[in-house]
Specification:
The protein is α+β, with helices and mostly antiparallel strands. The chain has 1 helix and 5 strands, in the order αβββββ.
Length: 132
């Protein structure tokens, strides 16, 4: 084998190594991109869940501050932070738990574009002498 053909053979091997390294780098980049995209989705979902829980807790505290006799009927409610959730709405269900106690459930609903509807609920008991 002449010196020229040895150099040519070495160049072919080097090109193969370059191709393998390039494939590895591209594969690693795609994997990192997929992980980052998934992290963004998870972070957004956690943010929405946190906002919904905070809104529901605030609504429960407002209801607990009312007297037993002045508790409203079941229905919807609004809160300024619900504007931070996509397509959000709030509902409260107030029902008799026993003679002197009412069960109050506050639910916040939201739906992201292209995703299934989500919700979070908080429940408490309110008696004639105050909230439990």
């Amino acid at each position: 084998m002449s010196a020229a053909s040895r150099r040519h053979a070495l160049r072919r091997g080097f090109s193969l190594i370059e191709v393998l390294v390039t494939i590895f780098v591209i594969g690693a980049s795609v994997a990192l991109y997929a992980a980052a995209a998934n992290t963004i989705t998870i972070t957004r979902n956690a943010k929405y869940q946190s906002i919904a829980t905070r809104v529901a807790a605030h609504q429960l505290e407002e209801l607990r501050a009312l007297s037993y006799a002045s508790l409203p009927e079941s229905g919807s409610f609004a809160h300024s932070e619900m504007d931070l959730l996509p397509s959000a709405s709030g509902a409260m269900d107030i029902s008799a738990y026993n003679d002197k106690t009412r069960e109050v459930t506050v639910t916040v609903f939201w739906q992201e574009l292209g995703a299934s509807p989500r919700s979070t609920s908080l429940t408490t008991l309110i008696t004639e002498s105050g909230g439990l």
